[in-house]
Amino acid sequence: MNVTQAEFVISAVGPAQYPEEGLPEIALAGRSNVGKSSLINKMIQRKNLARTSSQPGKTQTLNFYKINGELYFVDLPGYGYAKVSRTQREQWGKFIEQYLLQRDRLRLLLLLVDARHPPTRDDVSMYDWLTHFSIPVCVVATKADKIPRSQWQKHVKQVKETLFMRGSDPLVLFSSETGLGKDELWAIIQQHTEVGQPAPKAAPEAD
């Protein structure tokens, strides 16, 4: 996809603040510091539209980025950061869950994991939760440039086995440094955002 326009639109914590154009949305989830902002910047070929930080846990809202006036990337707060208070984690969890379960414009969730290591317990829990509610998922294994090419398939297998991935869910090996996986990921995103693409099956509201 040739990105000619990208802009940050809003940081939201509830439905009243979500954009209302009706454009399809691609959400990004993952543990803190897994590289969500770097992935967004690489995908849109901008250096710092999505702000990266050396301080994990900095993203505390749903950040909406409009791409080419055609779709949104929605950056969710990172999980698994111990220095965030339990109260704050619970607050984040509520509005993230509300978004994922009730947002009818959500077309796909990109679940980012660090390719260098086995997925964490939080990664496994997130994947299990998403599949339980039939939310379309693409797993993105980031920081692939930190692994020798000869070891890529070994690490891909490790991610798939640790998550117990369904065969229908794609996995993309990605590097925000080299651009590895960028075109493949755009192709998957476009499959889910084409005009006429049905919305994901509505999930029941959580208790």
Please give a handful of descriptors for the protein shown.
single chain; alpha/beta; 20% strand; 7-stranded mixed beta sheet
Q: What does this entry show, briefly?
A:
This protein is an alpha/beta fold and 207 residues long. The protein contains five helices and seven strands; from the N terminus they run ββαββαβαβαβα. The chain has a seven-stranded mixed beta sheet, sandwiched between helices.
Structural class: alpha/beta
Describe the global form: globular
Report, as a whole number of angstroms, the end-to-end distance. Answer: 39 Å
Number of strands: 7
**Helical residues, percent:** 25-40%
Textual characterization of the structure:
The structure is a single chain. This protein is 30% helix and 20% strand. The protein has five helices and seven strands. It has a seven-stranded mixed beta sheet with strand order 1-3-4-2-5-6-7, with helices on both faces. The chain starts with 5 loop residues before the first strand and ends in a 14-residue tail after the last helix.
Q: Which helices and strands, and how do they pair?
A:
Elements: E1 6-12, E2 25-30, H1 36-44, E3 62-67, E4 71-75, H2 86-102, E5 106-114, H3 121-132, E6 137-142, H4 152-163, E7 171-173, H5 182-193
Parallel strand pairs: 2-4, 2-5, 5-6, 6-7
Antiparallel strand pairs: 1-3, 3-4
